[in-house]
Amino acid sequence: MNRPQDQGAAIILGGVWILVLLALYRSILCFGDEHDDLFDLIRLAFGRVISKLMIYVYGIFVLLMIGKDLAIVWGTIGNIMLPK
């Protein structure tokens, strides 16, 4: 993505993707009551089996991102604190 036309396409596609996710999230919010959280809304929108699969995938994604962030932070701290 070093060319300007690629960057423009990425910006446009990113904007379209944000609109799709916003529409999906808004439609999911219509299913629940005021006090439902995200997991209840996913269960109501997608059913029991698919919602459990989605929640497990989301949980794995969160754990991987936490691990990645911690690795970056501890690598930075290790480079600063430990002498070479």
Explained architecture:
Helix content is 82%, strand content 0%. By secondary structure, the chain is mainly alpha-helical. The longest helix has 34 residues, at 48-81. The radius of gyration is 19 Å and the shape is flat.
Summarize the structure.
The protein is mainly alpha-helical and 84 residues long. The chain has three helices and no strands.
Name the features.
3 helices, mainly alpha, single chain, 84 residues
Q: What oligomeric assembly is this protein in? A: single chain
Helix content: over 70%
Q: Beta-strand level of the residues, as a percent range?
A: under 5%
Coarse shape: flat
Number of helices: 3
CA radius of gyration is 19 Å
Mean pLDDT: 83
Structural class: mainly alpha
Total strands: the figure is: 0
Q: Stretches where pLDDT falls below 50 for ≥5 residues?
A: none
Q: Strand-and-helix sequence, N→C?
A: HHH
Please give the largest β-sheet.
none
The first-to-last residue Cα distance is: 36 Å
Question: What is this structure's SSE topology?
Answer:
Elements: H1 4-29, H2 38-46, H3 48-81
Helix pairs in contact: 2-3
